[in-house]
Amino acid sequence: MPERDGYIPGVPCWVDSSQPDPGAALAFYGGLLGWEFEDAMPPGSEGRYFIARLRGGDVAAVGSIPDGAPRMAMWNTYVWVDSADATAALAIQAGGRALMEPFDVMNAGRMAVLADPQGASFCVWQAKEHMGAQIVNEAGALNFNVLNTTDTEAAKQFYGAVFGWTTLALGSGEFWTLSAYGDYLEELTPGIRKMTADMGAAGFEDVVAAIRPIDGDSPPHWAVQFMTDDADSTALKAEALGGEILMPPTDVPWSRITVIRDPQGATLIASKFVPENKDLA
User: Fold this and answer.
1) All structural domains of the chain
2) How do residues 266-278 score in pLDDT, each as one tens digit?
3) SS3 track for the chain
Protein backbone atom coordinates (compact mmCIF):
# COMPACT_ATOMS: atom_id res chain seq x y z
CA MET A 1 0.00 0.00 0.00
CA PRO A 2 2.27 2.84 -1.18
CA GLU A 3 -0.46 5.53 -1.26
CA ARG A 4 -1.34 7.54 1.86
CA ASP A 5 -3.90 10.23 2.62
CA GLY A 6 -2.94 11.22 6.14
CA TYR A 7 -1.58 9.39 9.18
CA ILE A 8 -2.51 8.72 12.79
CA PRO A 9 -0.84 10.44 15.77
CA GLY A 10 2.57 9.06 16.61
CA VAL A 11 3.51 7.93 13.10
CA PRO A 12 6.35 9.53 11.09
CA CYS A 13 4.61 11.25 8.19
CA TRP A 14 7.06 13.44 6.30
CA VAL A 15 10.75 14.13 5.66
CA ASP A 16 12.57 17.09 4.24
CA SER A 17 16.17 18.08 3.75
CA SER A 18 17.55 21.44 4.88
CA GLN A 19 20.27 22.49 2.46
CA PRO A 20 22.62 25.52 2.27
CA ASP A 21 21.79 25.68 -1.46
CA PRO A 22 18.46 23.89 -1.97
CA GLY A 23 18.35 24.63 -5.69
CA ALA A 24 21.67 22.86 -6.18
CA ALA A 25 20.32 19.75 -4.43
CA LEU A 26 17.56 19.21 -6.97
CA ALA A 27 19.77 17.73 -9.67
CA PHE A 28 21.26 15.23 -7.21
CA TYR A 29 17.97 13.98 -5.77
CA GLY A 30 16.12 14.15 -9.05
CA GLY A 31 18.79 11.99 -10.65
CA LEU A 32 19.18 9.64 -7.70
CA LEU A 33 15.55 8.98 -6.78
CA GLY A 34 13.63 10.08 -9.86
CA TRP A 35 11.94 13.02 -8.16
CA GLU A 36 10.25 15.93 -9.87
CA PHE A 37 10.07 19.21 -7.95
CA GLU A 38 7.76 22.16 -7.48
CA ASP A 39 8.70 25.30 -5.53
CA ALA A 40 6.00 25.65 -2.86
CA MET A 41 7.01 29.11 -1.67
CA PRO A 42 5.19 32.27 -2.82
CA PRO A 43 7.01 34.51 -5.32
CA GLY A 44 9.48 36.81 -3.61
CA SER A 45 10.02 34.58 -0.59
CA GLU A 46 13.53 34.56 0.84
CA GLY A 47 13.45 30.85 1.62
CA ARG A 48 12.96 28.02 -0.84
CA TYR A 49 10.95 24.84 -0.35
CA PHE A 50 10.75 22.36 -3.19
CA ILE A 51 8.16 19.57 -2.91
CA ALA A 52 9.47 16.31 -4.42
CA ARG A 53 6.99 14.06 -6.20
CA LEU A 54 6.74 10.59 -7.68
CA ARG A 55 3.81 9.76 -9.95
CA GLY A 56 2.34 13.12 -8.97
CA GLY A 57 2.33 12.28 -5.25
CA ASP A 58 4.30 14.17 -2.59
CA VAL A 59 7.20 12.12 -1.21
CA ALA A 60 9.60 14.59 0.47
CA ALA A 61 10.97 18.12 0.17
CA VAL A 62 14.22 20.04 -0.14
CA GLY A 63 14.36 23.48 1.45
CA SER A 64 16.45 26.31 2.83
CA ILE A 65 18.01 26.14 6.28
CA PRO A 66 15.83 28.09 8.73
CA ASP A 67 17.21 31.30 10.20
CA GLY A 68 19.24 30.61 13.31
CA ALA A 69 19.76 26.92 12.54
CA PRO A 70 23.25 25.48 11.97
CA ARG A 71 24.42 25.92 8.38
CA MET A 72 24.64 22.21 7.69
CA ALA A 73 22.72 19.96 5.34
CA MET A 74 20.55 17.36 7.01
CA TRP A 75 17.41 15.26 6.67
CA ASN A 76 14.54 15.92 9.08
CA THR A 77 11.89 13.49 10.34
CA TYR A 78 8.33 14.69 11.08
CA VAL A 79 5.88 12.85 13.34
CA TRP A 80 2.12 13.35 12.94
CA VAL A 81 0.40 14.78 16.04
CA ASP A 82 -3.00 16.17 16.97
CA SER A 83 -1.46 19.27 18.52
CA ALA A 84 2.05 20.62 17.95
CA ASP A 85 1.71 22.83 21.03
CA ALA A 86 0.63 20.04 23.36
CA THR A 87 3.30 17.67 22.05
CA ALA A 88 6.03 20.29 22.43
CA ALA A 89 4.97 20.87 26.03
CA LEU A 90 4.96 17.11 26.66
CA ALA A 91 8.44 16.74 25.15
CA ILE A 92 9.84 19.47 27.40
CA GLN A 93 8.20 17.87 30.43
CA ALA A 94 9.85 14.56 29.46
CA GLY A 95 13.31 16.16 29.38
CA GLY A 96 13.54 17.30 25.76
CA ARG A 97 13.99 20.79 24.32
CA ALA A 98 12.14 22.98 21.86
CA LEU A 99 14.60 24.08 19.17
CA MET A 100 11.80 25.98 17.44
CA GLU A 101 8.59 26.73 19.33
CA PRO A 102 5.31 25.74 17.60
CA PHE A 103 4.52 27.93 14.57
CA ASP A 104 2.16 27.94 11.62
CA VAL A 105 3.44 26.99 8.16
CA MET A 106 1.06 29.10 6.05
CA ASN A 107 -2.05 26.97 5.47
CA ALA A 108 -0.09 23.70 5.35
CA GLY A 109 -0.03 22.95 9.07
CA ARG A 110 1.55 23.78 12.41
CA MET A 111 4.86 22.37 13.57
CA ALA A 112 7.61 22.47 16.16
CA VAL A 113 11.25 21.39 16.06
CA LEU A 114 12.21 19.42 19.16
CA ALA A 115 15.22 17.55 20.53
CA ASP A 116 15.24 14.49 22.74
CA PRO A 117 17.39 14.42 25.91
CA GLN A 118 20.35 12.98 23.96
CA GLY A 119 20.14 15.79 21.37
CA ALA A 120 18.52 14.03 18.39
CA SER A 121 16.24 16.56 16.69
CA PHE A 122 12.88 15.82 15.10
CA CYS A 123 9.77 17.72 14.03
CA VAL A 124 6.13 17.28 14.96
CA TRP A 125 3.45 18.02 12.38
CA GLN A 126 -0.15 19.10 13.01
CA ALA A 127 -1.70 18.83 9.56
CA LYS A 128 -4.00 21.31 7.90
CA GLU A 129 -3.75 21.24 4.10
CA HIS A 130 -0.52 19.22 3.87
CA MET A 131 -1.24 15.60 4.77
CA GLY A 132 2.30 14.24 4.75
CA ALA A 133 3.89 11.88 2.26
CA GLN A 134 1.37 10.56 -0.26
CA ILE A 135 3.67 7.86 -1.68
CA VAL A 136 5.72 5.59 0.60
CA ASN A 137 7.30 2.14 0.48
CA GLU A 138 8.15 2.08 -3.19
CA ALA A 139 11.35 2.84 -5.12
CA GLY A 140 12.28 6.49 -4.64
CA ALA A 141 9.99 6.98 -1.63
CA LEU A 142 10.52 6.96 2.11
CA ASN A 143 10.23 3.58 3.78
CA PHE A 144 11.83 4.02 7.20
CA ASN A 145 13.02 6.44 9.87
CA VAL A 146 15.76 5.39 12.29
CA LEU A 147 16.75 6.93 15.62
CA ASN A 148 20.49 6.61 16.22
CA THR A 149 21.01 7.15 19.95
CA THR A 150 23.72 6.86 22.58
CA ASP A 151 21.22 5.89 25.30
CA THR A 152 18.47 3.52 24.21
CA GLU A 153 16.88 3.23 27.66
CA ALA A 154 16.58 7.00 28.06
CA ALA A 155 15.22 7.23 24.51
CA LYS A 156 12.56 4.62 25.32
CA GLN A 157 11.40 6.64 28.31
CA PHE A 158 11.28 9.89 26.33
CA TYR A 159 9.52 8.68 23.18
CA GLY A 160 7.20 6.48 25.21
CA ALA A 161 6.11 9.54 27.19
CA VAL A 162 5.76 11.79 24.12
CA PHE A 163 4.24 9.43 21.53
CA GLY A 164 3.26 6.31 23.47
CA TRP A 165 5.83 4.23 21.60
CA THR A 166 6.95 0.84 22.84
CA THR A 167 9.64 -1.37 21.32
CA LEU A 168 9.85 -4.71 19.55
CA ALA A 169 12.98 -6.84 19.30
CA LEU A 170 13.00 -8.64 15.98
CA GLY A 171 16.03 -10.60 14.86
CA SER A 172 19.09 -8.48 15.61
CA GLY A 173 17.17 -5.19 15.45
CA GLU A 174 14.89 -3.18 17.71
CA PHE A 175 11.94 -1.15 16.52
CA TRP A 176 9.55 1.52 17.76
CA THR A 177 5.97 0.26 17.82
CA LEU A 178 2.50 1.72 18.22
CA SER A 179 -0.29 -0.83 18.50
CA ALA A 180 -2.82 1.64 17.11
CA TYR A 181 -0.80 1.72 13.90
CA GLY A 182 -1.12 -2.01 13.39
CA ASP A 183 -4.86 -1.70 13.97
CA TYR A 184 -4.98 1.15 11.44
CA LEU A 185 -3.08 -0.88 8.83
CA GLU A 186 -5.28 -3.91 9.47
CA GLU A 187 -8.32 -1.79 8.61
CA LEU A 188 -6.66 -0.57 5.42
CA THR A 189 -5.30 -3.99 4.47
CA PRO A 190 -7.24 -6.79 6.18
CA GLY A 191 -4.96 -9.73 6.93
CA ILE A 192 -1.74 -7.75 7.28
CA ARG A 193 -1.15 -9.06 10.80
CA LYS A 194 -1.34 -12.66 9.57
CA MET A 195 0.83 -11.82 6.56
CA THR A 196 3.66 -10.42 8.70
CA ALA A 197 3.40 -13.36 11.09
CA ASP A 198 3.61 -15.81 8.18
CA MET A 199 6.79 -14.02 7.03
CA GLY A 200 8.35 -14.60 10.44
CA ALA A 201 7.95 -10.97 11.52
CA ALA A 202 4.99 -11.08 13.90
CA GLY A 203 4.29 -7.64 15.31
CA PHE A 204 6.05 -5.75 12.54
CA GLU A 205 2.73 -4.23 11.44
CA ASP A 206 2.89 -2.11 14.62
CA VAL A 207 6.35 -0.73 13.74
CA VAL A 208 6.61 3.01 13.08
CA ALA A 209 10.42 3.44 13.11
CA ALA A 210 13.65 1.80 14.26
CA ILE A 211 16.07 2.42 17.09
CA ARG A 212 19.81 1.86 16.72
CA PRO A 213 22.43 2.21 19.47
CA ILE A 214 25.56 4.17 18.55
CA ASP A 215 28.70 5.12 20.43
CA GLY A 216 29.75 8.66 21.20
CA ASP A 217 31.76 9.09 18.00
CA SER A 218 28.73 10.47 16.15
CA PRO A 219 25.93 12.63 17.56
CA PRO A 220 22.47 11.16 18.15
CA HIS A 221 20.23 11.82 15.16
CA TRP A 222 17.23 10.66 13.17
CA ALA A 223 18.13 9.04 9.84
CA VAL A 224 15.90 8.61 6.81
CA GLN A 225 15.75 5.59 4.50
CA PHE A 226 14.41 5.49 0.96
CA MET A 227 13.49 2.37 -0.98
CA THR A 228 15.38 1.37 -4.09
CA ASP A 229 15.06 -1.46 -6.60
CA ASP A 230 18.85 -1.93 -6.62
CA ALA A 231 21.14 -0.68 -3.83
CA ASP A 232 24.27 -1.30 -5.90
CA SER A 233 23.16 0.76 -8.87
CA THR A 234 21.88 3.49 -6.53
CA ALA A 235 25.33 3.73 -4.94
CA LEU A 236 26.98 4.01 -8.35
CA LYS A 237 24.47 6.66 -9.40
CA ALA A 238 25.06 8.65 -6.21
CA GLU A 239 28.80 8.78 -6.87
CA ALA A 240 28.25 9.83 -10.48
CA LEU A 241 26.02 12.68 -9.26
CA GLY A 242 28.69 13.96 -6.87
CA GLY A 243 27.71 12.12 -3.69
CA GLU A 244 29.89 10.05 -1.40
CA ILE A 245 29.31 6.44 -0.32
CA LEU A 246 29.74 6.19 3.45
CA MET A 247 28.77 2.51 3.49
CA PRO A 248 28.94 0.43 0.32
CA PRO A 249 25.99 -1.82 -0.52
CA THR A 250 25.75 -4.36 2.30
CA ASP A 251 23.41 -7.24 3.08
CA VAL A 252 21.59 -6.78 6.41
CA PRO A 253 18.53 -8.52 7.87
CA TRP A 254 15.64 -8.25 5.39
CA SER A 255 17.50 -5.77 3.15
CA ARG A 256 20.52 -4.67 1.17
CA ILE A 257 21.42 -1.08 2.03
CA THR A 258 23.91 1.66 1.24
CA VAL A 259 24.58 4.90 3.13
CA ILE A 260 25.06 8.00 1.00
CA ARG A 261 26.23 11.55 1.71
CA ASP A 262 24.86 14.09 -0.75
CA PRO A 263 27.11 16.81 -2.24
CA GLN A 264 26.20 19.30 0.52
CA GLY A 265 26.66 16.83 3.38
CA ALA A 266 23.23 15.37 4.25
CA THR A 267 23.18 11.60 4.69
CA LEU A 268 20.51 9.11 3.70
CA ILE A 269 20.06 5.36 3.42
CA ALA A 270 18.94 3.57 0.26
CA SER A 271 17.44 0.15 0.91
CA LYS A 272 16.27 -2.77 -1.22
CA PHE A 273 13.91 -5.23 0.47
CA VAL A 274 15.48 -8.71 0.38
CA PRO A 275 13.26 -11.24 2.23
CA GLU A 276 15.84 -14.00 1.94
CA ASN A 277 18.18 -11.90 4.13
CA LYS A 278 15.80 -12.08 7.09
CA ASP A 279 17.98 -14.47 9.12
CA LEU A 280 21.24 -12.58 8.69
CA ALA A 281 22.95 -11.53 11.92
Assistant:
1) 1-281 (3.10.180.10)
2) 999 999 999 888 7
3) CCECCCCCCCCEEEEEEEECCHHHHHHHHHHHHCCEEEECCCCCCCCCEEEEEECCEEEEEEEECCCCCCCCCEEEEEEECCCHHHHHHHHHHCCCEEEEEEEEECCCEEEEEEECCCCCEEEEEEECCCCCCCECCCCCCEEEEEEEECCHHHHHHHHHHHHCCEEEEECCEEEEECHHHHHHHHHHCCCHHHHHHHCCCCCHHHEEEEEEECCCCCCCEEEEEEECCCHHHHHHHHHHCCCEEEEEEEEECCEEEEEEECCCCCEEEEEEECHHHCCCC
